[in-house]
## 1
Amino acid sequence: MNFKRKLKINWWLWFLFSVPAMIYLWLKQYEDKAGAVHSDWGDLVYYSSHGLWRYIFAPLFWNLALPLLLGWILQYLVGTAWETFRQKGRSVKQTDAC
């Protein structure tokens, strides 16, 4: 593996991997022991409107930062695999032409 390779970011792949995961995590509904159903988005709105800012950081990390990080890693791996596949295809065509 060549670690000196220039870091390329495919913004569309990053968007494709990250945003659906964020939307799912924000809107996923949980049921607590009393039977009430809530989502992290509802909790975020409730906490921010009542000034309970210290409770916002955990959902923000798990629902925003983690999907962004995992989406970046996935897009990098897919992009690297695609570039490797294309390079191997070019080298095979060049050797066949000789």
## 2
Amino acid sequence: MDGVIVAATVVIALSALASLWLNWRLSEDNRALRKAGTEPEVVAYLAPDPRSGFFLDLVLENVGQGPACDVEYFVDAEPVDFAKHEVKYVPARTARKIKSLLPQGQRVSRFIGVGSRLYSEDEEARLQPFRVKVWYSTLRGARIGPKEYVIDVAELGGSAQADPGEERIAQSLEKIEKHLDHFASGFQRLHVETITTSERRQQDQERRARWEQEAAAAEAANEQAS
């Protein structure tokens, strides 16, 4: 009889322990679900500027379910490689604070460069991949990070080399002129105004200056929006 009582007591104790463990697991799962529904998640990636497709931006976006506070990032890249590709507005190996509060679904963009200067089919000539580390806090004050994201201009492929419309038009005219050269007999040749090498260089310099001004204006607008 005593043995039956002892066995029953052991079974009851084990059942109580199992119930406590199950309740603890359910509580942890519920806490994780609530956290997933309220926590921010700031990610970093490279994207074409929506206003000028041939500009590329470094984007930090809150894709989570809650606001992110005190958002900071650090670009782990080679300064020499950045200087080689004229990356000026996102300094390498420098920590920056971008937002005291980044609401859910919002993002901050930083101009990183002109696509044609950053990307090349030649792997050695293009901007080398680099890492962006991101830190941020929740509304409860919990600090998250660093979270690391690899930024690789090669992922954008040829779209990173999008040219201005006038450049594409000029290239198309050159192609048309070459095709028309084959029809030398019986047709009046199309007259296309030509320019000297120095004049073309001057035009390229002016066009590049306009790009720089637009990039600076875009960066200033982003800073004000921040």
## 3
Amino acid sequence: MRKANAVITVLVLVFFLIHAIMGGFQLFGVIPGGKTLMKVITPIMEAFILAHLVIGCKLTVDSLRAVKKSGKGYFRENKLFWVRRISGFAVMLFIFVHAPVFAGKNDDGVYRLAAFEGVMLTAHILFVVSLALHIVSNAKPMLLSFGVKSFKELGLDIALILSFVLIFTAIAFIIYYVRWNVI
């Protein structure tokens, strides 16, 4: 089940990168008509996210059962385990905030969100931060599940690419927020 989750995670990351870059360009106003591609990519990504969520919940329940059975929680020793689970939960909460806002309308080629004020900007910046935390804290075990022994070099490459994409999306949210409140 862990190997299947690792494969699903890679697919989520691939679709996330495409989704984030396309969405960022839409928010910049560079690709006003790119919503068609987003309508195809987003449901596929959501299906993979749902599968990742179900498997993650199952693995978490299995771990909690083992803790209960042994009678030893070792909370201090398992902080990274809890960072992974809590950051994943935060990501899911922010997805529920993100999705309805981005069901915007395309009026005369101009992409408009439903509402994007200070609270939404803050929520989306926190979404980017929680995604970064979740991805970074889970990168090593994902790579290990594929048999990658040298995490350092490949992990840094992945972190660099994701950092650029996450900063790009955060800047896109901020620029859209400014444009949305000025226009």
## 4
Amino acid sequence: MLRTSSVKMSSGLPTPWLVSLRRSLRRRLLGRGKPRPAATWDAQYRAGTWDGIVAEIERHACIASFVRRFGPERPFVLDVGCGQGALARQLRGDACGRYVGIDISSEAILRAAKDGAQGESFHAVDVEAGPPSFVTPGSVDAAVFSEVLYYLDDPLETLRRFVPLLSPSGFFVFSLWKPARHRALRRGLCRAYDETCVREVGSGNTWRISVAALRGRSLSGGA
């Protein structure tokens, strides 16, 4: 006699583990990301998840040093995934002429704006919907994608849409945590852009920070 299972049949929707598996395979094989809704980020910032992480200071200091080295005097910096404005604080003084920080989290933007300085502005923007309309094409000297690429569904396509914002000598700065996990994404970045300088910071789980220009476009500042 067969026993009737008490487990309900699936409604046709993928189970959470299957969704997770698909996302993992997309990341590992295709270089795609795992988007999180704005509400998730808002809750984390309210809970203080991203407050006071000492290792982040070294990472942002490295990014700021790249901006100083390869950018013009007093550059226009677009910080994509700016969080609570940590990079803005590293760039204050003579390191930055204009700074625009954008992030999907309204909570992070509110916190960043409270500590904002002259020449800085912060905006809640979902970059997967496209580049911010208030940034003039051809005006950005350094577009920083800091810990954000692997949270985009299609990182390379999003970057392609930001290229028109770059000035003739403009460049990207990419920051990737645990770079070994993102080999497919890194291969895609290397096909599309020339990496002028690469540095790893932190111990254990490191960040890989790189300066990248469009193919055939040289940068000042040396290698």
